[in-house]
Amino acid sequence: MKKDSKPSLAARREFLAKLGRAATCTGAVVGAAGALGVMQNVAAKTEAKSEGSSFPTKDYDWTKHQWAFGVDATKCIGCLRCVEACKRENNVMQDAHHFRTWVERYVYLEGEENARIDSQQDPVNIEASGSEKVFRFANRYKDAKVEKAFFVPKLCNHCTNPPCVQVCPVGACYRTKDGVVLIDDDYCIGCRYCVQACPYGARFFDEERNVSDKCTWCYHRITKGLQPACVEICPVGARVFGDRMDKESPISLFIRNNRVQVLKPETGNAPNVFYVGIDKEVN
Amino acid sequence: MEPILQLAPYTGWVYPNETVFEWSVLIAVYPYITGLVAGAFTVSSLYQVFGFQRLKPVAHLALLTSLSFMIFVPTPLLLHLGQPQRAFEATITPHLTSAMAMFGFFASFYVALLIIEGWFANRPFIVEQAQKRTDLLGKFYRLLTLGSYDVSEHAMRFDRKWIFALAVIGIPAAHGLHGYVGFMYGSVKAREWWSSDLMAVIFLFSAIISGVSLLAVLYVVSCKLRKIPVDLGCLKGLAYTIWAFIMVALVLEGLEFANIVYKGREGVDMIIQYVTGPLLIPYFILQFAIGAVTPLLWLSYMIWRGTTGKALVVGVTVCACLVLFSVFMMRWNVVIGGQEISKTGKGLLSYHLPFFGKEGALVAFLLTVAPLGLLYVLTRLFPPWEHEATSSSALHAG
Predict the structure, then answer these.
(1) DSSP A2-51
(2) What average pLDDT does chain B have?
(3) How confident is the model over B172-185, as a mean pLDDT?
(4) Residue A37 contacts B where some CB pair is shorter than 8 Å
(5) B26 φ, ψ to 5°?
(6) For residues A209 and B40, is the Cβ–Cβ distance under 8 A?
(7) How far is A132 from chain B, CA to nearest CA, in Å?
(8) Is the pLDDT assigned to residue A96 strictly greater than 50?
(9) Which structural domain, as residue segments, surrounds residue A53?
(10) Are A36 and A55 part of one and the same domain?
């Protein structure tokens, strides 16, 4: 009996050893593949877009659009209607420290190398407007010799590789199929990592609702065929919005007919707000 | 009633949304505590795994210290969250691309490891108390035995094997956890002051010196409290460890700073203006001169002269306190400093620390010292200096 069992034991051992080796190899392959998969997922460039074909209503198919924004800084007159319209449309906190969009003023004075830059939240401008709810640029350079001056509207760049989406620990921040970066208010834990990660200062923390907030390109409007509030109110057409899938849309024409640039391209974020007429100091 | 916003005064040009400081002092306390955990565990491992016999008197204390601080690691984060009730979403439905999402897993794994290792290390004491005591505490110890009363040499050998294995796993776990905290800052490309490949390693080495220093202070204080003489060999061992790692930490930080200045990328002018202005005292004077270079020179002197006795005890304790302070300043200068440099590269903000409030100095201080309270309780329940049964070197167990 014992004699008989020895070869069978040896065979069993050999089989188990083979099985072990096979399992190890399979494990290594699966592990390597898994590691590759994780690396691909973690890399900013391959950020997975949200799934689902129809959102947010059955009349709107987010696979049929690719939204983008244009800013013609040569047209902006710094009236700040856009800032006020945005605050009202989106219930943004009514103070001078929370903005979904803002306008920057660049002024080169005679004999000065660098531009003097301010925005509507600057205490001098707030004093001129007399309130943190209405915004004006103070005429602070009226006695100075201005060599060159221009305004630059700013907003979330809705990047193709958004660092804010990359760092969100719960996935509350996501990029829609139609190219808009949104925040799920019911899911945001309020860690503010996204605020830190945005190189453009486009995000802020809403202390009233205790979640992060930023421009949505008025997603509630654009999915109904309307323009974002800031675009609609701009009296000079400095802000352009549209669908890049439509070759004749205002944004497609804007990008096609101008030499456009984006902000901080070296970050690799691939912004989707395209600028015309900005200067070296704008970032 | 405190205002909900702490608005930051600024100079130059900053983005409008930057005038609110989003990461407060609590986010500086968080890596500080995590670092102490990793550093304390280093001491435990030096004895358990690498057989540094002279660190034996603090080996168990190191484990308890690590556990006490680790339990408090999530508290500054929870206090800072806008929606703390949703904190577990990061663990239940983690977003895998986020450097923050894995924290819950790493932290839980490490807490579990510490508890299991602590259990094995204290098992003879637990069994002894369970058999001896008849009061309520006896019940507690009986519960902790998990039904195993076997403290024979065979069982102890088995335990030591586990302690050794857990200590080995604990080394990458503790240092991975803290290196990962460094990565959370180093991977933020939006901030020039943070965005560095060296950040994780810098965090790691500063963590080690802070943890070892904490152990040195705790050991001396515990000896005074227990009215027993300080084991000078052990203290010297801790001093050597601080001395060795502080040099690496200093070199790394120097390299990091040299990189920023030498590469001179966009915005470097503002960084230079910042470090030679508002950061001059917290960075060069407090963190480096007083907190790092002074203890390095003092320790070098003591090692060179072969200082011993009371002078050694006082010297090492003061140096350790300075290092603890230096590492806190390092966390402060990274977390707060990084936000004081505007993302525009053309302006500076200044953070004002409120004393009261959820994210004030008082809460930050209490959170930093609270683990010491827990440590006190744990040392009463599981005295790290009495049980001889498991303290024979684990070296032979491996």
Answers:
(1) HHHHHHHHHHHHHHHHHHHHHHHHHHHHHHHHHHHHHHHHHSGGGPPPP-
(2) 92
(3) 90
(4) no
(5) -60, -35
(6) no
(7) 13
(8) yes
(9) 49-100+154-283
(10) no
